# Entry
Amino acid sequence: MYKNTLISCLLTCTLFSCDEIYVNKNTHLSTTNKVGLERVGSITFDLDSLSIPNTNCLQLYTDKRRKRFFTFLNSFSNTIYIYDFEDKSLVSTVTYHIEGDNGVGKIMGYYIDSFDSIFVYCYEASTLSITNSYSQILSKISIGRKVNNQPKYAPTPKLINGMPLIKTRNLVVLVGNLGGEYQDEDELNRPVQCFINIETGRFHFEGPYPEIYRQGNWGGQLYRYAYQAYNPGNNKIVLSFPADHNIQVLNLADKTRTPHYASIKQIGDIYSYSSRKYFLHDKIDLHRHYSTNPAYQTIYFDEYRNIYLRFFNLPVHDYDIAVKEKRTKTFGVVILDEHFKVIGYHIFPKFSHSSTEVFFAREGIFIRNYHEDENKMVFSQYNLTKYN
# Structure
């Protein structure tokens, strides 16, 4: 009787109550802070009555004449707005049909290679359309996950701020994820990147999550995002994963992937969700887990200062989903040099800026701030400052 009871208890413990929380320890013992960010001003773009002061996708585009245009997506009207960057005036708009012979679907994001070659992406249909500035479709590529020889848990690509379209010659790279936690996940069956040959329309998925994602349950949602940035100078893509203290560097020339530590001690350890893979709890529990843990976010390459900026969120210690102050994280940025060495950081005041609306120019680093006037899109201008 005792033996049977003991076996039953051990089995119950194994199945339900003895799940280990995986801890991704931040082993960095000191903080390098040779440089930081200094706010030196701001710029403003006046909006029309159809626009709001935040966007899921923006780009500073420079044409062959070196003329610069600030652009952003109005997702409500399926329109790309184009401003003269020098005088901040609205130059033109490109509005896309959702349906019909020239329909591109509901646009998630875009990339301007030139005004004769604008890539627009529809998330719902997983289609990438190449258009001109008259919104005419030149070609269209369908990116389906459920095709032969694709990984079991292939991602649905995204195209938003922090998850940009990367183009080099005829190659386009998108990044994305598939929600959920799966017990049979391995290094090959759950990639995060989609590589597309725009001449042939052929595509494939590759690029694994770091090993820590196979060590615990990460909630299947926000910690499963993947962010990327591209440095054309060395032909390398850098990936940032929310639960990983390292960044992953993909060399497009030889296809090698190399981890580099990219954190600071203030970020601390990151704990996995307190349940085995596959078993997920309600959304409030998952939100609490994410909010009370640190996490990494977007990563950008600043070609003007030859640095990388990796954004992060600090944990909320007195979490209350009903109170904005107690569910919103403070965010900051880790600054890395061109060799992926941490050289500094900056922490922003809560409710001051957006960590996903960022662009770079020779004048500085521009991060959208939360401005009270809904008729204006305002960016704080930061310069890199050196500390003694």
User: Anything to note?
Assistant: The chain has one domain: 20-386. The domain at 20-386 is CATH 2.120.10.30 (Neuraminidase). The first helix runs from residue 2 to 17.
